[in-house]
Amino acid sequence: MLMVVILICVVFGLWAWYLRNNNKNEPPAMPGALPVIGHAHLLIGDSTKLWAYFKELSHISLNVGRAITTYIGPRTVYVITDPDDFLTVANTCLQKDGFYDFAKPWIGEGLVTGTVSIWKVHRKLLNPAFSQIVLDSYLGVFNKQSRRLVKDLEVEVGKGSFDHWIYTRHNALETICLTALGVDFTDKNVLNSKYVMATEQMFNLIVDRFQKVWLHSHFIYSWSSLKKKQDEYLKILHNLSYTVLQKRKADYLKNRNNNEEPTQGPKFKSFMDILLELSIEKGAFNDREIREHMDTIIVSGHDTSASVLMYSMLLVGSYPKVQERIFEELQDVFGDDDRDVTKHDLSQLCYLEAVLKETIRIYPIVPVIARHLDRDVKLRNCTLTGGRTCCMFIYGVHRHPMWGPDAEKFKPERWLDPATLPKCPNAFAGFGLGKRSCIGKWYAIMSLKTSLAHLFRHYRLRGDHTKLEVKIDVMLKPVSGYHIAIERRNK
Ligand code: HEM
């Protein structure tokens, strides 16, 4: 078996080696390629090492015209870090790269991984679920969940460093279930923990597969021990989403038969309401498709927000002056009142929003995205060849020289004055760019601002982000998270 695998790799490698130099206007090649395997040997190691390699790729790309060519066995993979080129590729080639197929057993044809023809129809149908009017209707839940987080953290007051990532993850999972899906898991701790664990393991597994180039083949992967583990985790993940689906569907049908408006949940149609309505009344989705959209929203909606909350708490804890400025802004808006955050308050919390954006710029939790090039794409300094993979390095875009010599510094105030921001509108790509950018951007900003407004009214944080080691588990994750301590704020 091993011999067959090696033989296949060698044949593909030689073939790709032969084909790869035909485009004379291609970006320069990344140094260090070996015959046949290309740069695949640089992917080997744990996910911290992989992240170090990705950072190096970003910096090399930034230094040589914002684009380089790498080779993973038979595949040619471009790395780009120019913001305008990023947008060009993002809007010219809408198809996600084959690497995203590693997540398809989990989230299928949901928006993140969906094939273009399906994505085009479904994104249009689902956009209204993230309209401002729907998001405003979630503000009550965002406040309730933020208060819950403040309360949960009470046990850590004065006890020294602890892992706040555990708290933000559980809280964000409950929030996405309450809002987008209309189900309450706040008293189901065991289920919640199992789901969070399975999500983490699935991300590990996808990265593990990425690093083991021979497992890129679906056939070889299907015989691997990794695939067996994947099946176990998927059982947990799909079990939860199917349970929610059955319950919500039964409620929908009951209300429809009784001609009743739902008594619980938001007044406006949530993501789940829209899915059910389109499925039951118009036959737009079958159960599998609903489940795939639900799984996509659960994972992309909770892990992202939880990570940004975790990193922003750590960064603010590391910069006392930033923390005091946040508190001053909160005092200006709320005084000593512990009331809920309103829509109007959110529009006034400009410094807090700057903190969030700067956090995502420094720690882009989705640091790389990839497209399949279905045609040749002409960029500013080079041409990418169709049929290949283009990785857009958000991490690199956020360190482009247009951010200035202090690009590595956490400086929220740069967001307050257009003169201190890059002129290029694409320089910030934390939520992706173009037609397939994040559908949940404003959901995330609203929920995160609400959480931070509650947290910083109650606590003073201390942290040290320079001690944080990160790894890439699809998203940018902490290796360990014991870097903040909290104290109650005496106003
Ligand atoms: C701060 C938090 C978030 C960040 C930084 C973020 C970032 C991103 C990025 C970079 C992409 C593009 C992915 C790619 O092209 O492969 C994306 C897509 C997506 N995000 Fe987010 N996201 C966040 C929060 C959310 C939330 C809260 C939701 C849902 C409630 C969500 C749902 C999605 C979906 C469904 C897509 C796929 C969009 C499409 O292809 O049409 N995200 N996000």
Automatic annotation (TrEMBL):
- First-listed, main subcellular location of the protein, grouped into a coarse class: endoplasmic reticulum
InterPro entries from the xrefs?
A: Cyt_P450, Cyt_P450_CS, Cyt_P450_E_grp-I, Cyt_P450_sf, Cytochrome_P450_Monoox
> What is the organism of origin for this protein?
Vanessa tameamea
Is Nucleotide-binding among the key words of this record? no
Q: Does the keyword Iron apply?
A: yes
Q: What superkingdom does the record give?
A: Eukaryota
Report the locations given in the UniProt record.
Endoplasmic reticulum membrane; Microsome membrane
The record's keywords, sorted A to Z, are: Endoplasmic reticulum, Heme, Iron, Membrane, Metal-binding, Microsome, Monooxygenase, Oxidoreductase
Q: How does it sit in the membrane?
A: Peripheral membrane protein
Q: Tell me the protein family, please.
A: Belongs to the cytochrome P450 family.
One Pfam family cited in the UniProt record for this chain: p450
Q: Which gene encodes it?
A: LOC113402732
Q: What is this protein called?
A: Cytochrome P450 4C1-like
State the function annotated in the UniProt record: May be involved in the metabolism of insect hormones and in the breakdown of synthetic insecticides.
Q: Which cofactor does it need?
A: heme
The record's PANTHER family line, in alphabetical order, gives: CYTOCHROME P450 4C3-RELATED, CYTOCHROME P450 FAMILY 4
